[in-house]
Amino acid sequence: MTNKQISRRTMLKRSLAAGGAALGGASLGFTAAPGLLRAQPKEIVIGGPAGAAKYFNADIFPLMEKQIGAKILYEGTNSLTNLQKMQADKAAPKMSVVVMDDPVMIAAAEQDLIVKMGIGAVPTIGKINPAAVHRDALWVNYQQPWAGIAFNSSRLKTPPSSWTALWDAGNKGRIIVPSLNNTEGYWTLLVAAHLETGKPFKEAQYEIEAGFNKLKSLKPNLLTIYTNAPQAINLLEQGEASLIAGQFSAYTLIRKADGSPIDLAIPKEGGFAMPSGLAKVKNAPGGALADAALEAFLSPEVQSVLAAKAFVAPVNPAATKPAGFPDATTLFAPDWAHFAKGRAGWIERWNRELL
């Protein structure tokens, strides 16, 4: 470095210092940085199911962003993947709020990855359905989709009336089922156990061996096993598949409302209540912003939009629920603790025997 260069640098530094003094004694180097930080928009990352991305981004998040005064960035995947992200990022979480199924919430709670929501920070917790609040507000259910059989209504004029339709010989190579990596995959296993044993869902959920035995006979009818729900729905819309087992309202009926030739049937044996959980990540980078997002999710305004746009039953009694929704008391909700305990082993067996 030459003396000439040093001289120019020194002169520049002195000039900046003088300019800062003229503006009140602070150098420009220190006054500019905070201004730049203040200009940056506030953001919060929410992780949730890939299939919810469309209505979250189009209908829910714009309303929530107005309520919380910040931009919402969404990471859409499945609950197990979000759990793995939380495990990997435990020391420095990237997500502030997670939308995951109850069985995965149980695992997140056991691994100390989520924290209780204080009623002072999220006051609407005290106003929602008490059955939607779990473990003293460690997580809450923010909605309740229902699950049945999704079908291509242009190819099947009569909705499937029984879960046995999945095994019908006429559906060879035309059935899609969710992977057990997706919580909705459990419905196929549970239905299989029910059909194999003849026991009601409440008892059949513990007959896993029988369920896997019955699933073996489903293999000739399988077109594919999915982990990405939107891709599976595309196959149904295109007519390559006839039925999707264990599909639920928050995916299927939204596409139907958009004009897709698909519909959702609740077979005579019964349908299922999907567990849609909402929690605050431990050491959430959003801090109070995470609390604000949780409060917004549970507000009557957002709950009403969820019901209308996502075809789910709201948990806030003050929300408006459209006509025609099924009676929630008729939907089966399983022993999720039992499911969470056995799931890892069941997934391994599922992958070994069905893929």
Structure write-up:
The chain has 355 residues and is an alpha/beta fold. The protein folds into two domains: 43-145 and 274-324, Periplasmic binding protein-like II (D-Maltodextrin-Binding Protein, domain 2, 3-Layer(aba) Sandwich); 147-273 and 334-354, D-Maltodextrin-Binding Protein, domain 2, CATH 3.40.190.10. Helix content is 43%, strand content 18%. The protein contains 13 helices and 14 strands. It has helices at 3-22, 28-39, 53-68, 79-88, 102-110, 186-197, 201-204, 208-216, 229-237, 249-257, 288-298, 300-310, 336-354, and strands at 43-49, 71-77, 97-101, 114-115, 133-134, 139-144, 146-152, 175-178, 222-226, 243-248, 262-265, 272-273, 276-281, 313-314. Strands 1, 2, 3, 4, 5, 6, 13 and 14 form an eight-stranded mixed sheet that branches. Strands 7, 8, 9, 10, 11 and 12 form a six-stranded mixed sheet that branches. Helix 3 (53-68) links the parallel strand 1 (43-49) and strand 2. Helix 5 packs across helix 13. The longest helix has 20 residues, at 3-22. The termini are far apart. Mean pLDDT is 88; it is low at 1-41.
